[in-house]
Amino acid sequence: MVSLNTPICDFGWKAPDFSLPGVDGKTHTLAGVRGGRGTLVMFICNHCPYVKAVIERIVRDSRDLQALDIGVIAIMSNDPHDYPEDSFDNMGRVARHFGFTFPYVFDETQEVAKAYGAVCTPDFFGFNDALELQYRGRLDSSKKESAPADAHRDLFEAMRHVAQTGHGPKEQIPSMGCSIKWREDPTRPSG
């Protein structure tokens, strides 16, 4: 397992479009999940200990952000051939078990992860209402273990500020997680 940190926020960078299948049986696009006051695109997976440590907080913060008219989507870009816990069927089980209120979609070709420059799970991209990047930081101070229950909610507070002002905080602490599991042979089907 390789642990990586996300790069600093490239303020104003425009969100690339996508069209990906969700565990709910629908195809989801950037326009379809876009919120009136901002959009959160996050790269997560099922097997990563960093994601497992915060998945309930991701669900909580996503629900709270959706109440602020921020659209939310989670993208799984890992190669499930080498990481079967990240299979599409298991994605559906995880989404149901944790009560995802946002689409959980599969980036089988890994083109979306590459377009976004995603490097790890979790990796958070917070955009304003013009789909300009304003946040590329961590959820909170959790690492492979959950931070204390009263930990500062970095992602939530940053995105609330984006919803109110259109701008993210200048100071951001990078997210940390397992590297994206890239396919060694891009021509091989992922299943």
Automatic annotation (TrEMBL):
A single GO molecular function term of this UniProt record: oxidoreductase activity
Biased composition annotated in UniProt, kind: Basic and acidic residues: 181-191
Domain of life: Bacteria
Any Pfam family the entry gives: AhpC-TSA
Cited CDD domains: PRX_like1
Domain Thioredoxin, residue spans: 9-144
Residue ranges, annotated region (Disordered): 164-191
Protein name per Swiss-Prot or TrEMBL: AhpC/TSA family protein
Originating species: Varunaivibrio sulfuroxidans
